[in-house]
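Lab notebook, page 48
Experiment: co-folding of the full assembly
Goal: obtain a model of how the components sit together before planning crosslinking
Operator: M.T.
Materials (sequences as entered):
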Amino acid sequence: MIKFLLMINKQGQTRLSKYYDHVDVGKRAALEANVVKCCLFRKKEECSFVEYKDYKLVYRQYAALFIVVGITDDENELSIYELVHNFIEVLDKYFNRVSELDIMFNLDKVHIMLDEMILNGCIVETNKNRILAPLLALDKMAES
Amino acid sequence: MALKIVKGSIDRMFDKNLQDLVRGIRNHKEDEAKYISTCIDEIKQELKQDNIAVKANAVCKLTYLQMLGYDISWAAFNIVEVMSSSKFTYKRIGYLAASQCFHEGTDVIMLTTNQIRKDLSSPNQYDTGVALTGLSCFVTPDLARDLANDIMTLMSHTKPYIRKKAVLIMYKVFLKYPESLRPAFPRLKEKLEDPDPGVQSAAVNVICELARRNPKNYLSLAPLFFKLMTSSTNNWVLIKIIKLFGALTPLEPRLGKKLIEPLTNLIHSTSAMSLLYECVNTVIAVLISLSSGMPNHSASIQLCVQKLRILIEDSDQNLKYLGLLAMSKILKTHPKSVQSHKDLILQCLDDKDESIRLRALDLLYGMVSKKNLMEIVKKLMLHVDKAEGTTYRDELLTKIIDICSQSNYQYITNFEWYISILVELTRLEGTRHGHLIASQMLDVAIRVKAIRGFAVAQMAMLLDSGHLLTGNMQRNGICEVLYAAAWICGEFSEHLDDPMQTLEAMLRPKVASLPGHIQAVYVQNAAKLFATVLQKHEGATDSQAAQDTSQLLIERLPLFVQSANLEVQERASCILQLVKYIQKLQQKDVEVAEEVSALFAGELNPVAPKAQKKVPVPEGLDLDAWINEPPSESESEDEKPKAVFAKEEPKQSRARHIEVDEKELARRREARKQEQANNPFYIKSSPSSQKVYQDAPGVEHIPVVQIDLSVPLKVPGMPMSEQYLKLEEERRQKERADKKKKDKKKKKREKRGKGKRDDSGPESEEDITPAHQVDIVTEEMPENALPSDDDDKDPNDPHKALDIDLDNLLLGNDYRPLADSEKLPVRTHRREVLKSPEEDGDQDGITQEAKRRSSKEKKEKDRKSKEEEKKKKKKKHKHVVEEEPPEPLSEEPVQSEESAEVAAPPTSTSAEASDLDFWLSSAPVPPPIKEALAPKTSVAAAPDSEPDVPKDAEPDEEKSLKNKKKKQKKEKDEKKKKKRHHHHHHHGDGGGGDSVQNGTVEEEEEEEPLPPMSNYCLLAENSYIKMVYDIQGNLQDGSQVVVSVIFENKSNSFLKSMEFNVLDSLNSKLQRPEGASPHDGLVVPFQLPPGVSNEARFVFSVQSIVMPQKLKGTLTFIVKSEDSSTHEKLDFKLHFTCTSYLITTPCYSDAYAKLLESGDLKSSSLKLEGLNMPFHHLLARICFHHHFSVVERIDSCASMYSRSIQGHHVCLLVKTANQTVSIDAKCDEPSLLANVLDEIKQTFSQC
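Observation: model returned without errors.
Model output:
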């Protein structure tokens, strides 16, 4: 099961957070700080999986942005690693060369995409077109 | 009104939107908090407006702020407002905010129920979708209960987009409202076969999550998942399914067997690393759950290990990490497969990545052997020196200690070396693990008597050098070591060269800065040293030295008397007074040494933690019997404890205690017992504990393991652990040379046997041979200790509530329809308008249950039309099934594989269960053998159905023999590396021997342990390679035997392209892959780096098994050294003995008697003379080497049984008297019998 997904920039600022189990707002900050400590300072040649408390963290870096996924022990690390890339590809497709600012300015839309991909801590959809369909429908709605 | 709207939209133009907020925050880096607080004020204003667009915008901004860590729960009601907007663009913002910040404690959630229900039934699929998504984040038990029915309805929505979401949300609903699982399960199961792959995948996800927590309820779905696994192409789904199987196989080993093949195929074929990794993981899990030793599985393990090696060797750190992770799982059950990759694991210790290094460390733990322990620890010590950062260094330290101390120091051959390592580790500054080192020092010094002299010298040095005393003592954990050092020096002070010097070191003023508990030990042990010093000087004419010592103590002890620590203070003042008194006596020339030493006389023996429990109850003692009359019934139980308390309180004087009569005592005892029984924290003693003190000397019952130290222990000046490596190497070389002489070996074995007898009493140290005796207490568990997995379950685990039997939802014998109370709550005041035709039933208010039934009826019709066809199928299958016990519902057609997968066929649970059985047994694995003669063979196929062991004469004997055999089987694999130095087949290797003893000593205390045995014989050998082999009958196929060959690379070059070929005879043929000509060789599926050995198995088909046979064969291989490669070949002769066609098959004594009476058997006999070995050894040898099992043993007579792969019964009656053994044998095939007897004779002529 996926427990949370975070997008954090190199300075350690959270750009997106999604928790699939409720975590108190106060504890979120602490958890995110710890995650930053665990992942951001790792070198390029170190592996992308970190054990943190009961979770395993799977992270991937894109330019200045880190995507960190917290998963339970029984999840397949590599499949999550691939999922992260899939997510980035979806973002790329929608925003056309996605940047950190795109994510900040369109937080709600990123959430829609994420919700299409992961629901309830499970991977639901990996097909890019199908992930983007609701969002495109929404954009059309807004235009009209 | 209109004006208001206009005004609102004008206002809005001046409002910040999300983008403005983000920009604003970026522009106010210095005073971000202040800026945000003004923004929040603005948002509060915006939320007060009536315009929903303004509110939505405000909520959107709040969502961003929430992400930054600001609490927005105050806006919960506004969020609900936005959620209920009719416009999707606003609604989704509301739901997003809700999903980010609502939780079970949010009270406004209850206001949302109707809104959510409305959205769920909205004609717009995105409304429904967004509601479902939101719900997944904030569903509460109330919401789950109220909406379960609506969501379940959506599981059959026309749009797959909704279906898949609804299916996934159901998982959360189940967690929050477990009652919904039973009613919803049939539909969930249907969704596994949904036409849309996305929905299918969602259902797989949900069932996987459910099944991983409570696997047994989902076992019946295995066939369906199996089909999905073979048909699905979505890797993400495949991974989930394969994971699920990993959870199911421990419950049903036959399932594991069925899985191996498709999984190995996937491993071979897939290019996706994630899938490969998952498959490997599950194959490992499957193999763990299967009984080991099935010949065809070593190939799978080999495959896994090879794939993992590829992962570990990959430059991608992620793969490396995962490879190591999975490798550690294999290590637990198949250590030998991993051990051959030691080189690779050691390499990983040098990796730049700490997580990889830690993983490699974990692996090393399981890879050590006697042979490589020193080398590995040396490498780790180097890393300790290099390590940056205390966490990793501490991790290394604990690992070193773990590795060395594992299984009772099993792998340590030289304890001097170990002590030196511990002493070296004390140089680590700032480690937290001082106490760990200390406890190891204590443990070794106490338990390994032979090392005490050395240990004491080293400890005295530690006390003296004082490098541990520097620095901040309270914080520096390493000073804990001094605790051990002081205690060891004091307790074993007779080994000290210069106790006076140590005493002085222990009383230095600097000691006062140590933590209190260490000072206390210092003071106490100073007194012990004092006693030793006195004793030393007593006889001497010069009494000055003794008096000086007293003076020293009197001068130094006051420092400790002033200590703030009570313990130190008390001990110090006690001892100070004592010494003062002694000094007085000394001045009068009174001899005191004897009396002072008496204070500390007596040796502390190591006692196993549970030794007391092991003391047997003396004969004739019934611990449950009343000692006195039981208390009268009239006393109410509640009063008892109270009465005791009330009466006991005033009893201060002793005199009154005596007055208490026996009745009263018994009553009190009873009351206490009751209280103890009710007290969960009271650790109950075994019934025997009462008697311990009277007649049990205690220690004799403690199993003691002995380790040979062939190097005489002496204290060389200041040896560092490095030196031991060299010493050890020399020793081994010497041994290697020794072992070449066969007679020498024999002597050694005798010596060991003698040593074994010695240690029945630990006191018998008189006849110490050069090999010092080492007592290591094995820690044991009481027999009745049960693994208490259930206790570990978290009572708060939501999954516990989901442990619901789902099979009985199907019609049949156990059918338990949904009770009214179980039906999902449906709103009654307004019926929903449903979209899909399938749900028409609901519209009429018909319950789920009824609808399901109708759909079932439909299926029943379908089924009937197929019935004819199935009946035919049944006939076809009948010959497979007929051996199984009669099924209760034999008139029900046996379900074929396809029909078993129909979502809800109206079969009973028992039928369903037998479907599963059938599905499983139709695998290419034989169905459990049902013959009365061979009840235990089915164990291999289905361990959970193990029949009761017959309670006749010798069940224990048989069991222990069996245990031993199993162990030896394992060990012989471990030993194969060691075999490099052996040039004969059945070598009693010390390493294997010790561990065998470890396990069996307790069972056979009075009997001599068996020397280790191996069935592997030399096949051929040259300067490059050595092959040893063993032949075993294939349980699954009467015409096959499996030849396991261990290839060992003896050269310094790489051996590759090995090809194994045998010249077939008419009777025996090597099984080659399809399409290969009968002259082709088989490629050995691995390569051998220098010094590595590995095992390959070859299957031969045989026709007649009554005669032994020899097959000629050749092994060709390429020797690749750095600059050249040459082709080499090695000829060999495979000897198929008749024994190798026998399979160990247990037999009940009554079945055995019947067999003998039947008169179909021909008899023959054999006499062995001059055999000097215990009878149980003899039996064990026959069992082990010739695959027999003991049916019954009475004194010096035993009946044994075995069966050939073709079903011949072989019965032996073995009697022994005065070194003569006579074996009467019966078999239905005389020539087979004659040959087997010949082979038995040969076995015993060799020893």
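Interpretation: Chain A touches chain B through 48 residues (CB under 8 Å).
Next step: discuss with group before ordering constructs.
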